[in-house]
TrEMBL record:
Protein name: Peptide/nickel transport system ATP-binding protein
UniProt keyword terms in alphabetical order: ATP-binding, Nucleotide-binding, Transport
Keyword check for Cell inner membrane: no
Record InterPro entries: AAA+_ATPase (IPR003593), ABC_transp_ATP-bind (IPR050319), ABC_transporter-like_ATP-bd (IPR003439), ABC_transporter-like_CS (IPR017871), Oligopep_ABC_C (IPR013563), P-loop_NTPase (IPR027417)
Basic and acidic residues compositional bias, start-end: 423-433
Origin superkingdom: Archaea
């Protein structure tokens, strides 16, 4: 693994009790971002670490939901599984076969059993073709059935996905967004796949239509024995369709659990923040219950240790200092405010009153905080930020080790994994939990 401070592998799914249909081990995808002629010459080409050491498996007939903010690597993970992009490292086993070792005809044959549905039903349908031939296209490409059988099958599939078989001769523009996504479903099903990657398939649809399409997908899953990897950033969609849920942050899986378990007993601060960001229906309350602090950092230079630590509201206090729980909470909030320069100009005593009124650390930590306060009062933001980050944030175990732990399950059968150091009893005492 790339990080020399690593002591644990990342979240590894041991959840599949029956033999998995799909098993992903250490899957990694880095993109070269070009970096220009000079950087290439000096060997400094930067890499976008879109997916890093991801492992999980999916049982036959199961739906694994994959959730995370935009840019966290969900689509790249899906494309790497299907080898639509070439993985940098790792292995994908599909029906026991190592997909990453296949090429040519064998890969093509295996791909027939692994289909993908995309977010935008409009652009994935050729406007010049009629819907029937669109559905028949994959069968043709794989040399399945003769022309008459393909047409019969296409008409049957249109009906199965909730469309009128008479629509065989219509063009895509005659259909609504939801109907077009149904055409995509029929097309994916035409080659009788075992596994479908659904990449935000209902995101572009009206909310009223989403549930109908999701229900159709559920029915088809049962009827055809399908297994889904279902990508969405909308947790209500994930809750509707998934059996288990994987949460992805900045290229890595941070939590993996049965659906009920994840929603009722979330263990990773990122999952908790995502759940807290779900809009509250009560109009008297603010739009959301809570929001994630700051932006997702660049995957070119992701934070060491736990990648969420730079935004985590539960960053663990660094060892080597005496912090009470309140003192550390205040210090952490001050650190984040300094990093974001989210403090109005004020003198030292006002800063102290605003951030450390109730509890200010003493000893060495107190001296560092005093120096940082003095820097901020003098408008020396960079010095203040560097002092706090190097003294505290980067000394936290969250920065020094990659976390991966199994936690006790309260609402599910499968193991519950959460890549957070807060589950390691030897590094955190009860007062900080
Ligand atoms: N071909 C590429 N070359 C360079 N970087 C890429 C490429 N494709 C994706 N990335 C980068 O990889 C990271 C992950 O992108 P990806 O599209 O997989 O995320 P996502 O979670 O699916 O986001 P969204 O929900 O917005 O689709 C992003 O930083 C993105 O800019």
């Amino acid at each position: 693994m790339s990080n020399s401070l690593t002591t644990n592998n990342q979240t590894e799914d041991k959840g599949a009790t029956s033999k998995p249909l799909l098993k992903v081990e250490g899957l990694t995808k880095h993109f070269s971002d070009g970096g220009g002629f000079l950087s290439g010459l000096f060997g400094e080409e930067q890499r976008v670490r879109a997916v890093e050491d991801v492992s999980f498996s999916i049982r036959k007939g199961e739906t694994l939901g994959l959730v995370g903010e935009s840019g966290c690597g969900k689509s790249t993970l899906a494309r790497s599984i299907l080898r639509l992009v070439e993985p940098t490292d790792g292995t994908v086993y599909f029906k026991g076969e190592n997909m990453t070792a296949l090429s040519g005809e064998k890969l093509r044959a295996q791909r027939k059993d692994m289909q993908m549905i995309f977010q935008d039903p409009q652009s994935s349908l050729d406007p010049r073709m009629k819907v029937g031939p669109i559905v028949e296209e994959p069968m043709k490409a794989h040399g399945m059935y003769d022309a008459n059988e393909r047409e019969t099958r296409a008409r049957e599939l249109l009906e199965k996905v909730g469309l009128d078989p008479q629509h065989y001769n219509r063009h895509p523009h005659a259909f609504s967004g939801g109907q077009r996504q149904r055409v995509n479903l029929a097309r994916a099903l035409s080659v009788n796949p075992d596994f479908i990657v659904c990449d935000e398939p209902v995101t572009a649809l009206d909310v009223s239509i989403q549930a109908q399409v999701l229900n159709t997908m559920k029915n088809l899953q049962e009827e055809f024995g399908l297994t889904y990897l279902f990508i969405a950033h909308d947790l209500s969609v994930i809750r509707h369709i998934s059996d288990r849920v994987a949460v992805m942050y900045l290229g890595q899986l941070v939590e993996l659990a049965d659906k009920e378990e994840l929603f009722e007993n979330p263990q990773h601060p990122y999952t908790q923040a995502l759940l807290d960001s779900i809009p509250v229906p009560d109009p008297r309350k603010a739009g959301t219950r809570g929001v994630l602090e700051g932006d997702v950092p660049s995957p070119i230079d992701p934070p060491s240790g736990c990648r969420f630590r730079t935004r985590c509201p539960k960053l663990i206090a660094p060892a080597g200092y005496e912090f009470s729980s309140d003192e550390w909470v205040n210090t952490r909030q001050f650190l984040r405010a300094v990093e974001r320069r989210a403090i109005e100009p004020m003198n030292k005593s006002s800063l102290e009153a605003q951030f450390f009124d109730a509890a200010k650390p003493s000893g060495e930590a107190g001296r560092i905080v005093d120096d940082a306060i003095a820097h901020v009062a003098n408008d020396e933001w960079t010095q203040a930020s560097e002092l706090l980050v190097t003294s505290f944030a980067e000394q936290s175990i969250c920065a020094r080790e990659i976390p991966a732990y199994e936690v006790s399950t309260e609402n599910g059968k499968s193991p519950h994994q959460a890549a957070c150091h807060r589950h390691r009893d030897d590094v955190i005492d009860s007062r900080q939990k």
